[in-house]
Write a structure and sequence with these properties.
The protein is mainly α. It has helices spanning 20-23, 29-49, 52-60, 63-71, 82-101, 111-123, 147-155, 158-181, 191-201, 206-213, 242-248, 250-265, 273-286, 288-303, 308-315, 318-321, 324-334, 349-372, 379-390, 401-424, 427-440, 442-450, 465-469, 474-477, 484-489, and strands spanning 128-132, 135-139, 341-343, 394-396, 478-479, 494-495. The strands form two sheets. A four-stranded mixed β-sheet has the order 5-2-1-6. The chain has a two-stranded antiparallel sheet with strand order 3-4.
């Protein structure tokens, strides 16, 4: 085990491509589809938001990298059986429907804001402008999750956009579950059952923390992952379960899931610089805080199996360099009006460390010990665990968003290691892992319970983003165009029609 496993050990390249070791660093077809899923919204953004003199060259500059990734892809990759495909499709449909994106189920309140963003992207001209009390603003939130459904809505209707959002979320979820199920080429015929079950119900043991810190009774459909609010000087802290991410923040969860699953599959031979760069660029556009957590993992994968000199040489090749203009624009655009980050400050450092130990033990530490004690010790897993250990000491945003989002890739790495450990462990260790997973499953079960409650899905279709939010989250979603270079590249922003503009 450890570093000896690989997703595609027998993969072979095209004629004229590098040898087997180098070929194993490239995407297989499923991984390439995952990268394309992350990058397609960027094409929509560049062509829809930028002036044509900038939109065309920045979009065309991405094509050499995609062509090179396609040309160098692994031809003999591990395939999903028909039964595995059907299982992935069925679990995806049920999981995404229960998230609330299907009309029959409860949609968590955070979606009031997200549905208003989707509505504005369909109704308004790109880029989106807003007249606020603070002046003229544009939409500055990471738009990766919304762009393809919004384009579908512009070609059909707002209802069509909402249906497309379900389909887009289901596609990303299916790609992730496919990557999970096929990660082990030596898997037994029925291994998909445990892989899918763990993927859906994977969570830290929030119920133990909640029972210790809460003085109220457990309510039907309760959201218990904020149990650690009292720790780290009162700063909110949470490592979200897979189901919580899908039900509340798929715009953050999906890119973190896909990137980390691909990284895990390449933990032996590593990942080519080009492949890592494509994944990182797509993730930055979807969820920059997730990309911050993913960057060290991708850097390790790119360095794995080669020296720093080779890493630098590959980084200076034309297909990789051609990604820089689009990446530069995305970073400049998304960091306008950003809020500062820093270490958690104030209070007793000893108490902070003690609180972090309790949080870490319940959320991931005990499970990591059971997984790695006599089994999986891949360096990628150890790096992910180090991230999970250190993140609680960093603060960003009013809800400490960095901890929640940057932890997503590392948690997926732990989940992938857990699946492999459970499938290959001796009975005693498998029993220990099962008990820890069963305790953690209370969190997603409560999320599933809430899906059967009733509640509003979105406000009336005339309400725009600021009508819905009352400008209460301007720091997170809106910003004035403060950078001349970004202003020169973007089309002129026009105010999005809202309830106040309706007759």
């Amino acid at each position: 085990m450890g570093d000896t496993a690989t997703a595609n050990p027998g993969a072979t390249p095209r004629a004229g491509a590098p040898g087997p070791a180098a070929a194993a660093r490239e995407f297989d077809l499923l991984e390439l589809l995952a990268a394309a899923y992350l990058l397609l919204p960027l094409f929509v953004f560049l062509l829809g938001w930028l002036r044509w003199p900038f939109a065309l060259p920045l979009s065309l500059a991405l094509l050499p990298a995609l062509y090179r990734a396609w040309q160098g892809r692994q031809l003999r990759a591990v395939r999903l059986s028909r039964r595995e495909l059907l299982a992935v499709a069925a679990v995806t449909a049920a999981w995404v429907c229960l998230s609330g994106l299907a009309p029959a189920f409860f949609l968590n309140l955070d979606w009031m804001t997200r549905m208003s963003v989707l509505r504005d992207l369909v109704v308004g001209s790109w880029p989106l402008g807003y007249d606020t009390a603070a002046g003229e603003m544009i939409l500055r939130c990471p738009p990766g999750y919304y762009m393809v459904p919004a384009l579908a809505g512009k070609l059909s209707s707002l209802h069509g956009a909402r249906l497309a959002l379900w389909g887009w979320t289901a596609l990303g979820t299916a790609l992730f579950l496919g990557l999970v199920v096929s990660a082990n080429p030596a898997r037994k015929p029925g291994a998909w059952r445990s892989a899918l079950l763990i993927a859906v119900f994977f969570s830290g043991m929030d119920i133990l923390g909640w029972l210790i810190s809460s003085h109220s009774s457990l309510q039907f459909g309760a959201h218990i992952e904020w149990w650690a609010t009292q720790f780290i000087n009162g700063s909110q802290i949470q490592y979200s379960s897979q189901t919580t991410q899908l039900f509340w923040v798929p715009n953050h969860g999906l890119p973190g899931w896909l990137l980390a699953a691909v990284a895990w599959r390449h933990r032996q031979h590593g990942l080519s610089v080009l492949a890592a760069a494509l994944l990182l660029l797509g993730t930055v556009f979807w969820a920059p805080l997730v990309a911050l957590g993913a960057a060290p993992l991708l850097l390790w994968c790119a360095w794995r199996g080669q020296g720093w000199r080779q890493l630098l040489q590959q980084s200076l090749r034309l297909p990789v360099l051609a990604l820089l203009p689009a990446g530069w624009l995305v970073c400049r655009y998304l960091t306008m009006g950003a809020v500062p980050a820093g270490a958690a400050a104030g209070g007793d450092l000893t108490m902070q460390v003690y609180s972090a130990i309790i949080f870490s033990a319940f959320e991931w530490g005990l499970l990591a010990w059971a997984v790695a004690a006599r089994g999986e010790r891949a360096a990628l897993l150890l790096l992910a665990l180090l991230q999970l250990l250190l993140l609680p000491f960093v603060h960003f945003g009013p809800s400490n968003d960095l901890v929640m989002r940057a932890s997503i890739p590392a948690l997926v790495i732990l989940m992938m290691a857990t699946i492999e450990a459970w499938q290959t462990a001796q009975p005693l260790r498998r029993s220990a892992i099962t008990v820890l997973l069963a305790i953690g499953s209370v969190t997603p079960l409560l999320e599933f319970e809430r899906a059967f409650q009733s509640g509003p899905r979105y406000l009336h279709e005339q309400a725009n983003f600021t009508d819905v939010t009352g400008e209460s989250v301007v720091w997170h979603y809106l910003s004035p165009v403060t950078r001349p270079d970004v202003k020169a590249m973007l089309k002129p922003a026009r105010p999005v029609p809202g309830a106040a503009q309706q007759p």
